[in-house]
Amino acid sequence: MHRIFQHDLHLFSRLSGVLGLPLPSPVEVTVMPTDLTEASPVERRLDTLLRLDSADDGSLLLAIEAQGKKDPAKPASWAYYTAYLWTKYRLPTALLVVCQDRATAEWAERSVSSGPPHLPTLTLRPAVLGPHNMPVITDPDEARADLALTTLSAITHAGDPDIGAILKALSTALRDVPEDVADPIIEFTTQGLEKRPALELWRNLVAVDLSFYTSVISEEIRDEGRAQAHAEAILIILEQRGLTISDDARQRITGCDDPEVLRRWVARAVTVSSVDEIFADEDA
């Protein structure tokens, strides 16, 4: 049933009438290797994989990917993941993509097919969460009712104008919960906001609204806040004294996260005759 296509390499292109499809008329046809076994291990990792078992609907696999930007190579990877999981576990497999901006979410929602338009064969269309469909939770009572959903709301709306209200609702809700419940929520929110401007707002809220927590992550956030304040103080003192601050020196000051070192630099900033003298001991 298949070898005849190897014997006559242009046979497929003459089946347009049979299939009712506008098939291409290739200039050249090449017989490719049929062994699809991976010759060497290729590392492919999903972000998260869940098995959902239901009494009524049976079991399914849910593959979850966090996508920060458009990536033309991703749909092929996602198709590989879902086909592989379907083959390995023999379970229906769904894909959920979580995005932080509308453009990426709209890109991820598009149907992508492995074949040409008239022969799509395998079509991928993941479910997508992002600022376009995630609720904006700004009521502390609503946030308290579902802390994880509110955290996801904050992460997906990290670049939106409403992010401040969401984070304030979350920090307010966390005041009333045990520390072991609050800790992972604080950490997930911190990691999810990454380097966006909202991260600084979240650090301030943790330092003020949740100052009574003594967990490692809470203390780290407060230490980072203190470090930033020290770095800003050093730069202000040097600028007020009229000293020239090179880009390297500025980056070294703002990039330091050791409060003890920064306190030494603050004291030196008052008397040094050049910015380089601040780093004298450390350089030695």
From TrEMBL:
<protein>
    <submittedName>
        <fullName>Uncharacterized protein</fullName>
    </submittedName>
</protein>
